[in-house]
Specification:
Layout lengths: L1 H4 L1 H21 L1 H6 L1 H15 L4 H9 L4 H19 L8 H12 L2 E4 L25 H18 L4 H12 L3 E3 L4 E4 L17 H19 L13 H20 L10 H39 L3 H10 L4 H30 L13 H9 L3 H6 L4 H4 L7
Parallel strand pairs: 1-3
Antiparallel strand pairs: 2-3
Helix pairs in contact: 4-8, 5-9, 6-7, 6-10, 6-12, 10-12, 10-14, 12-14, 12-15, 14-15
Length: about 400
């Protein structure tokens, strides 16, 4: 920092950081004195503060799966293509608004804590070489830890984004950083059971990470109730968004869920529409990938056809190799797609499983049932009649 910013700026930065720590200690003095519990919580919180910059990155390096970023990018890419090319989602938007939405979503990328976007390798964690004795009293160990902390902070002060990302790792939830156009995925979601990097079909991951990434895409668009980004929509799209909210609310009522709580109605409606759209995005992305990989898996055996059989295929039956390939692809799709859907729907529901049925803002059952019961594909797979799923599907 001295080289980049100058001695004066480096000194001011470190002095301000030290002063903030002293003020924090003094402000908590009365609270600490109240009981041993408060003292323990304070010590734990302050210890965590020492690790705010470094711990998340160090933990992520040890726990992250090297292949996870590629798998996550593929899932995100398939959903982005489903919006821009196949137009399977956001069908309630008018053409112009939908095109702007597709363009905005295409700019998003997935990043992980241990990835290249958040590189802290220039920080020397080994110097100064201070030994921490576990038998020493807490205060002495804390001062030593703070010394190490400030040496790191002064050597390479974290950027605002780095501090935010570090906090996200502890929060354990996917988060959107709009200014960077990043979807940040904590290490927790780079491993099973959320994400399988090896030896499983794609549909295992689309039900979980596809749903979570889809929710971030929906948030980017601004589908939340009273979101400021809706001011850029055309009037017809804004009207249809209101109709979608009313349609989903009526379906929820038909399924027997209680009325929205007045204090949290906006949050409940926002989560309802966000998850409904995320399920559609994940489904559309999976369907696109399933078809593409189904065709690829057929190419080797087709190329191994003998010249005689290929001639008979083309001349005798007047059927081209291309048509044959397409028909085989359809057969493979029809044979394996139902099972893929069962796993996809099951994994999407398991994603929201919780021992608590308290609303947050929707209950775990609502998070599972509301999005899936709004999909014709779910009703067809399990032979549900329209009355049991809440009537006609609301277009997402």
């Amino acid at each position: 920092m001295v080289v980049k910013r100058g001695l004066r700026n480096a000194t001011f930065y470190l002095a301000t950081s030290l002063e903030a720590d002293v003020v924090y200690i003094l402000s908590m003095k009365d609270t600490i004195a109240q009981s041993e519990v408060y003292k323990a919580l304070y010590c734990l919180g302050f210890t965590y503060k020492c690790l705010t910059l470094t711990w998340a990155f160090l933990a992520a390096r040890h726990l992250a799966e090297p292949r996870s970023i590629g798998v996550l990018q593929d899932i995100l890419g398939a959903m982005q293509e489903a919006v821009s090319e196949e137009r399977d989602a956001f069908v309630w938007m008018e053409e112009a608004t939908r095109n702007k939405t597709a363009a905005a979503l295409s700019k998003l990328s997935v990043h992980v804590i241990a990835g290249k976007a958040f590189n802290v390798t220039s920080v020397d964690y080994n110097k100064p070489d201070v030994k921490l004795d576990v038998d020493e009293n807490f205060l002495k160990v804390l001062v030593t830890a703070l010394k190490l902390h400030h040496s790191v902070m002064s050597a390479k002060p974290p950027t605002r984004v780095e501090m935010l990302v570090s906090e996200l790792e502890f929060r354990g939830a996917l988060s959107l950083i709009p200014i960077m156009e990043y979807i940040v995925v904590p290490t927790l979601y780079q491993r099973d059971p959320y994400l399988y990097n090896y030896h499983v079909p794609d549909y295992f991951n689309y039900g979980t990470m596809g749903g979570l990434l889809g929710a971030q895409l929906a948030e980017t668009v601004g589908v939340a109730v009273n979101d400021d980004r809706q001011s850029t929509w055309d009037p017809a799209t804004a009207t249809k968004h209101g109709e979608l909210l009313r349609c989903l609310t009526e379906r929820r009522r038909h399924l027997g869920f209680p009325d929205f709580h007045p204090a949290t109605a906006d949050q409940q409606q926002t989560q309802m529409v966000t998850l409904s759209i995320s399920a559609r995005l994940a489904y559309s992305g999976l369907k696109r990938v399933f078809r593409r990989k189904g065709l690829q898996s057929l190419e080797p055996p087709i190329l191994k056809l003998s010249n005689i059989s290929l001639t008979l295929l083309v001349t005798s039956d007047c059927v081209s190799l291309r048509v044959f390939s397409q028909s085989r692809t359809v057969k493979v799709f029809n044979d394996y797609w139902p099972e893929a859907l069962r796993v996809f729907f099951s994994r999407f529901c398991l994603l929201w499983c919780s021992g608590s049925q308290a609303a947050d803002p929707l209950t775990a059952r609502e998070k599972c049932v509301l999005p899936l019961y709004n999909m014709e594909e779910f009703a067809e797979l399990y032979n549900c009649d329209a009355n049991s799923t809440g009537g006609a599907v609301c277009p997402t």
